[in-house]
Amino acid sequence: MRRRVEGTRASAVPCLLTAALIGVVFAGQACTDRAVDDTRSDAGTALAATTAGADKALDATKKAGDETADAAKGVAREAADKTTAIVGDVARKSQHAASAAGVAVTEGWITTKVKAKFADEKILDGSDIHVVTNGRVVTLTGTVASGAAKTRADAIARGTEQVSNVVNRLVVKEG
User: Which residue range forms the structural domain that includes residue 114?
Assistant: First the structure.
């Protein structure tokens, strides 16, 4: 009977070794699967963080561009407003100086006043209008963008103080 027990022990050792080896293989496979899952998870987290960072950078760049454009528009409006104010101020001072001295309004004053009024008109932006005053007759030459601009320039010149007549030779530019 002893032999049988020894034989059973001897045959149990290979079985135990086989079972241990199978356990190591499955444990190794489980570790490998977990490492792959961890790597995928880490890669997904890194990708999400990179995407979020890129989105924030894009938004910041877009916002900075919009702010720069708004600032440039504000500066341009301010410069146009100051130019208009200066031209109007020069015309008022010219008239005041002429009136204060008791001198009749001059051709130069009429020309300056008409040009100052043109500067305030948005419809005349981009126009190239030349004003010549002879006596109290104003002659307009040059180009305007539309028929409405030509009509408006004529009306402004006629409405200017001391103007007796307007010769309108403005041409509407094509295109």
Answer: 70-172
